[in-house]
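Incident log, support desk, overnight shift.

02:14 A customer reports that sequence design results differ from what the structure should imply. Their input is reproduced verbatim below. On-call engineer (initials T.W.) acknowledged and began investigating.
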């Protein structure tokens, strides 16, 4: 069965278009509710969201869907994606839902589902939901007396704040550190500053005034320039930039230089390996992970296992290989001993623990390798399959030959946006930039 609604990270699309309307959300709630209703007890679903204006509309539609099939609904309001995953398990819910489009602009939104174990649903269950959305939803409607109830949970943020603080070593504090925290005007705008402040940090905040339309706008992990500037301006010791739903993070050292997901993986791998906490003999990255990370891990007798792009594929690789650390260059960091999904704030706390434990500035402790020159360009397309075009294929082959054995090219379609991502890596940055532009131009010609 062809996937009509689900992509690599749940249902996502432009709000009030065919893929994401109130009707779609309601049907998704009805279908998921039917699948996860597995006994005679009162079933429950928990729902969190980021700060997009459309979140109210989608939330109400989901509530209607879930309650119509007899599920009780606990509504959290704005809360990070990893908090919803955590609370799904903590509150013994049958299913968890996060309403978010992550790092996308506010015009987009999405629906992420979690099973009772706090993990994202398998492809098979997502296909089952899609099948039910199209066939016989009325059969799952309950009698009037059995309709579910919905209520707001007021202490959900406090529960997650305490959980996040417990992941930081008890013998350490952040006293004396000035930290800039950029919450992208998104889901973590209350909880992230609270965690850092309660651990003793002097905090400077960015992106904590959401208005429904400014999520990820010129802020957050996808636009970290504001973070870097604020770190330098305030002479801070460290900077943290989350994305709209706080499942990914980028950081900045005291000089305002970016610490990306690859450097974060290297630092955590080194620290956990020394403490005999690292499992699997290394970490899981993706096909986008820089070759510099691979070389560094080899130098300390650790391995880099590569997965397809997408945190669900990273987690799948971790589970199969017995790893407990994995992530993406973009800042999705999964620490499976702590959380079932990427958690930007928890990852940042692990890095801060290393800085405090080693008593080193971030510029020394968090830049462990020199990355190979790597260039990424996104090309938007309206329709069709540009990567199947013979001219594009020929261009990619020619560029691969130009880079030779010392470099590599990765061209792929985004799983969450109508984009073709063109990435190249090699020893000569000028050549790398040239081949990326050449391939992007070829795609633009056929994708217009």
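02:41 Re-run completed on a clean worker. Output:
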């Amino acid at each position: 069965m062809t996937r009509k609604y689900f992509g690599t990270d749940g249902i996502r699309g432009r709000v009030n278009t065919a893929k994401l309307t109130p009707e779609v959300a309601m049907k998704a709630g009805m279908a998921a509710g039917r699948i996860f209703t597995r006994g005679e007890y009162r079933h429950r679903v928990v729902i969190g969201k980021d700060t997009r204006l459309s979140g109210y509309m989608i939330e109400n539609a989901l509530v209607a869907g879930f309650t119509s099939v007899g599920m009780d609904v606990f509504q959290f309001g704005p809360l990070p994606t990893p908090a919803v995953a955590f609370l799904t398990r903590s509150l013994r819910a049958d299913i968890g839902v996060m309403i978010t489009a992550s790092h996308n602009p506010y015009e987009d939104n999405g629906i992420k589902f979690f099973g009772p174990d706090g993990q994202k649903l398998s492809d098979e269950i997502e296909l089952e939901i899609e099948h039910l959305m199209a066939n016989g939803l009325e059969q799952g409607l309950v009698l009037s007396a059995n309709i579910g109830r919905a209520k707001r949970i007021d202490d959900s943020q406090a529960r997650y704040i305490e959980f996040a603080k417990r992941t930081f070593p008890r013998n350490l504090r952040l006293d004396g550190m000035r930290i800039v925290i950029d919450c992208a005007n998104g889901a973590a705008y209350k909880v992230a500053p609270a965690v850092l402040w309660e651990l003793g940090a002097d905090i400077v905040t960015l992106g904590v005034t959401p208005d429904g339309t400014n999520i990820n706008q010129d802020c957050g992990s996808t636009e970290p320039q504001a973070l870097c500037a604020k770190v330098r301006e305030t002479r801070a010791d460290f900077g943290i930039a989350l994305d709209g739903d706080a499942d990914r993070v980028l950081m900045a050292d005291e000089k305002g230089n970016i610490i990306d997901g690859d450097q974060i993986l290297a630092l955590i791998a080194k620290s956990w390996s020394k403490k005999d906490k690292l499992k699997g003999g290394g970490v899981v990255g993706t096909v986008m992970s820089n070759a510099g990370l691979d070389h560094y891990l080899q130098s300390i007798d650790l391995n880099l296992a590569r997965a397809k792009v997408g945190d669900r594929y990273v987690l799948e690789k971790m589970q199969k290989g017995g790893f407990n650390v994995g992530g993406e260059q973009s800042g999705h960091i999964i620490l499976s001993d702590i959380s079932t999904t990427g958690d930007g704030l928890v990852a940042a706390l692990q890095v801060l623990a290393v800085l405090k434990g080693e008593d080193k500035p971030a510029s020394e402790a968090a830049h462990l390798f020199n990355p190979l020159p790597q260039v990424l360009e996104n090309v938007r397309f309206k329709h069709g399959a540009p990567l199947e075009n013979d001219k594009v294929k020929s261009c990619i082959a020619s560029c691969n030959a130009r880079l030779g054995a010392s470099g590599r090219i990765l061209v792929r379609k985004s799983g969450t946006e109508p984009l073709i991502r063109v990435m190249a890596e090699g020893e000569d940055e000028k050549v790398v930039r040239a081949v990326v532009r050449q391939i992007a131009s070829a795609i633009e010609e056929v994708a217009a």
